[in-house]
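HOLO CASE FILE
Compound: NAP
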Amino acid sequence: MTISFADKTVLVTGANRGIGQALVEEALRRGAKRVYAATRQPFSHPDPRVTPLTLDVTNPAQIKAAATQVDELDVLINNAGVAGYDDLSDRAALEQHLAVNLFGPYDVTQAFLPVLLRSQGAIVNNVSLMAFAPLPLTPSYAISKAAAFNMSQSLRALLAGRGVTVHAVLTGPTDTDMTRGFEIPKATPQSVARAVLDAVDNGEEDIFPDPTSQAMADEWHNGAAKAMERQNAAFVPPHPPAA
Ligand SMILES: NC(=O)c1ccc[n+]([C@@H]2O[C@H](COP(=O)([O-])OP(=O)(O)OC[C@H]3O[C@@H](n4cnc5c(N)ncnc54)[C@H](OP(=O)(O)O)[C@@H]3O)[C@@H](O)[C@H]2O)c1
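Model generated. Tokens follow.
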């Protein structure tokens, strides 16, 4: 039985549908003490352990207000994201994807870092397999996810000595609104949510939560790029102990 989400406090962004909604349900199923469901629109949930938070991840005032409402947090799940078609001819499309998928998790993470340091908690970034290989129909999305993955790798190294773990989810095609109309094999959001929480439980830093991404897991874990990430992490100076 999985027990490590029992009595934990979890925050999920983009909690109202898709993978975010499944992550909320899975955390509750595992006995989480409190789940902060961060959404752009008003949100309610029948389980009294769910606390809604208004949070557009591109809105600095909302991020600040949300952070003041959370005084204890074990796991921050940066899940909110957007994906649109483009062909890289429109700079605004790239900026919009970076605003939500890169600067969103960046700003939310910085805002919640003090409580995560206190709990010696975990940050989970729902990235995408497109961090490794873009689908050229959605290049701005892929660029934003590659950047978010790289950010996760650096944050992981920078926070390791301070007791906060950083997990990147290299999610493959999942059956949500985001992939509607795209006729390829897809995992269910529920199975992805289970695999993500299992992997966080197991301390896996790069998470491959579905059959498509799983096919790349061994090669990634044992490859030259992962070895270089570890080598480079060794350059981070040790964090001085708290006075
Ligand atoms: N589905 C896939 O195949 C797949 C594959 C790889 C990675 N992912 C990643 O998984 C995450 C969840 O995707 P999904 O498939 O569940 O997509 P989804 O069903 O389209 O849900 C996206 C969620 O993100 C929220 N969101 C969008 N912009 C936001 C903003 N500015 N501030 C706060 N919330 C915002 C949406 O809220 P609203 O309802 O208010 O729009 C919604 O809750 C995303 O980061 C996505 O990139 C998905």
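CASE NOTES: Helices lie at 18-29, 60-69, 91-119, 139-160, 189-201, 211-221, 224-233. Strands lie at 9-13, 34-39, 50-54, 75-78, 122-126, 165-169, 206-207.
CLOSED: yes
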